[in-house]
Amino acid sequence: MSTLELSVVSIVSWISAMAMIFGGVFPYIPQYREIKKSGNADGFSLYVCLALLSANILRILFWFGKPFETPLLLQSILMNVAMLLMVHLCVNVKSRSDIIKKKDKVFTGNIS
């Protein structure tokens, strides 16, 4: 193998590792920005965050017993950080909307 082939292989390998690490988090960036901008988190499910947090925590714990590739470990760590940021944002947005409630309907008359 020549050095050019070796460097091309290492560059492709490095790009693949970066895509693996950041590829799972990338779709949540526009969603985070939209929720922050609009102040509305109604379309986002916290159950998805729970499932991803659980899966990635289990993957990290599994790594201690049987180490696997470092990019997958970094992907899990980064995904946990992203999900915790999403949960934090959604809880803040939803609590803000609960604090500023709409006027409650009050029954003031008799039913005829």
Automatic annotation (TrEMBL):
Membrane topology term: Multi-pass membrane protein
Keyword line: Membrane, Transmembrane, Transmembrane helix
Record-annotated membrane-spanning stretches: 6-29, 41-65, 71-93
Major location category of this protein: membrane
Any one of the GO BP annotations: retrograde transport, endosome to Golgi
Places the protein is found: Membrane
Gene Ontology CC: cytosol; endosome; membrane; trans-Golgi network
PANTHER family: PQ-LOOP REPEAT-CONTAINING PROTEIN 1, PQ-LOOP REPEAT-CONTAINING PROTEIN 1-LIKE PROTEIN
Name of the protein: PQ-loop repeat-containing protein
Lineage, opening ranks: Eukaryota, Metazoa, Ecdysozoa, Arthropoda, Hexapoda
